[in-house]
Design a protein that fits this description.
The protein contains 13 helices and 18 strands. By secondary structure, it is α+β, with helices and mostly antiparallel strands. Helix 2 packs across helix 3, helix 10 packs across helix 13 and helix 12 runs antiparallel to helix 13. It starts with 6 loop residues before the first helix and ends in an 8-residue tail after the last strand.
């Protein structure tokens, strides 16, 4: 019936051929998408093809004969349009115009499963079109449906390819398509601009000549990509044409179809600015730590001397003020130690000051440290660590600060008069410790991200911070061979839980 893949031309030919085959005078074809919404339509009248507006299509599918066929999904014949409420009456139906008509309307089914359109044919003489014409229309409906569906698929493919090409060329990142053997098949303008190679030069190289893939993330022979179900990301370095010019990049790799073949798409995002900022942040943290150590030591020494030098009868009134000062300096010292530990742990330095520590004593000292802050917010802290918990081999100061950070975090987010619970248990050669709060909870999408440096959860009215406490906790726990994560608490709140081996030194490395 139709030998073209252009949807406009298919609609035109289906209309003209159907009108001529059935013997009608005019016709209308509404093309539907997969959800039975109007895709396009046209009217054939007086040997002319007239495009239909979207509003007209929607009106006909709502109140007209086409709408009835869409709902009932069967062919219908109207012998006299003036006597049938399914016909949407217009000005040209008035006796002074063309008057009553006969009509036949049929759904266009693809293999009896998908409705791709509704075809309406009209004759100006009532009773002219009858069931015989309906049978003729049904006879051409299958071929018309196939032609329309193929044209829709072709248009969709062309649109997708054009959209992809626009995204590909206009992307602000370097984008390359490679074969599974790694040969570059296509590269966008940004790839050439960043690397210094021309596109023709890039297509003569392998992707491994430009950056070193992370085979742990990609899997052997790209096994993590071949299923096509996921995108893999990792950091690497882009080797440019200019000798010695290397750009840090974040690589995204996924399977795509290119020229009808399965290929790999690589998106290489320049993260030079991010790396520079991270270096500046690291330098700033180191500087802050070293600049704080000496003044802090002087303040603590001075406070100790005040306690010794001032007579007891005068010290009674000054004791609360001295205690406030000591608590404040202790908090600043913990922050400074945390900054230093973050730098050391991120650099891969191993923990050397390991000793056997009783869990009950370590948790008790952490509670004592935060008790004053908890009291000011009328919080109740319940220590439910069971008796008989084993001692563990840890860096005592570091693990004490982990517990303090988790408790301070719970105090920060728990409303006044709330409850905080510390719990723990032993499972084999692991101990599990946790801190429960009754705060607003952590959104699921942020439960991993909150352990990154300088990350804060966007919760309304939440207190602000540097975003270092939880980052330190993860680094410290991981350095001891453990894991830390956060879980939901019902009906509200969070549970921060971490595991530790009882004796990390005897764990298999």
């Amino acid at each position: 019936m139709v030998s073209t893949l252009d949807l406009d031309e298919v609609v035109a030919r289906v209309l003209t051929n159907s009108v001529g085959y059935v013997g009608a005078e005019r016709g209308m074809l509404i093309v539907l998408d997969a959800k039975h919404r109007p895709d396009m339509a046209a009217v054939y009248c007086n040997d002319k093809l007239i495009p239909s507006t979207h509003d007209t299509m929607c009106e006909l599918l709502s109140d007209g004969l086409a709408g009835w066929v869409l709902r009932e999904q069967k062919t219908v014949v109207i012998h006299d349009t003036s006597q049938d409420n399914r016909w949407l009456h217009r000005s040209d139906d008035e006796p002074s115009q063309s008057g009553p008509k006969s009509a036949v309307c049929a759904p266009l089914w693809l293999d009896g499963e998908r409705l791709v359109g509704i075809l309406t044919l009209v004759h100006s003489q009532p009773g002219f079109l009858n069931f015989h014409h309906a049978e003729l229309l049904d006879a051409v409906a299958d071929q018309a449906a196939i032609a329309i569906y193929n044209a829709q698929q072709y248009r969709s493919m062309e649109t997708s390819q054009l959209h992809y090409q626009q995204l590909f060329e206009d992307n602000i990142d370097s984008v390359m398509i490679t074969s599974w053997a790694g040969w570059i098949l296509e590269a966008n303008r940004m790839s050439a601009s960043v690397t210094g190679y021309t596109i023709s030069e890039l297509t003569q190289r392998r992707i491994t000549e430009l950056h070193r893939p992370d085979w742990t993330a990609l899997g052997e022979d790209y096994s993590m990509l071949r299923s096509g179900s996921r995108m893999v990301s990792f950091e690497s370095e882009l080797q440019c044409r200019e000798a010695g010019r290397i750009i840090p990049v974040l690589v995204y790799a996924q399977k795509v179809v290119f020229n009808k073949e399965d290929c790999i798409q690589w998106v290489l995002r320049d993260i030079s600015v991010r790396k520079e900022l991270e270096a500046l942040q690291s330098e700033l943290l180191t500087m802050v730590y070293h600049d704080l150590r000496s003044p802090l030591s002087n303040v603590v020494s001075s406070l100790d001397m005040i306690r010794v030098m001032i007579p007891d009868e005068l010290m009674a009134n000054l004791e609360p003020l001295v205690n406030i000062a000591l608590r404040s300096t202790d908090r600043v010292k913990r922050l400074a130690d945390t900054l230093l530990d973050i730098n050391h742990l991120e650099a891969g330095q191993k923990i050397t000051d390991m000793k056997e520590v009783r869990i009950q004593r370590l948790v008790g000292e952490a509670v004592d440290t935060v008790q004053v802050t908890a009291d000011t917010r009328q919080h109740v802290i319940l220590n439910e660590i069971p008796d008989g918990m084993p001692s563990i081999m840890v860096d005592e100061d570091m693990l004490r600060r982990v517990m303090i950070n988790l408790l301070e975090n719970a105090i920060k987010f728990t409303p006044p008069q709330g409850k905080i619970v510390i719990g723990g248990q032993q499972k084999g050669q692991l101990v599990f410790l946790w801190v429960d709060d009754t705060g607003p909870g952590i959104p699921p999408e942020a439960r991993e991200r909150i352990f990154d440096k300088f990350t804060r959860v966007n919760i309304e009215n939440a207190p602000r911070g540097l975003g270092l406490g939880l980052a330190f906790c993860r680094l410290a726990v991981n350095a001891h061979g453990g894991k830390i994560w956060v879980e939901d608490r019902q009906p509200h709140g969070s549970r921060f839980i971490f595991s530790l081996p009882i004796d990390y030194n005897n764990q298999p490395q």
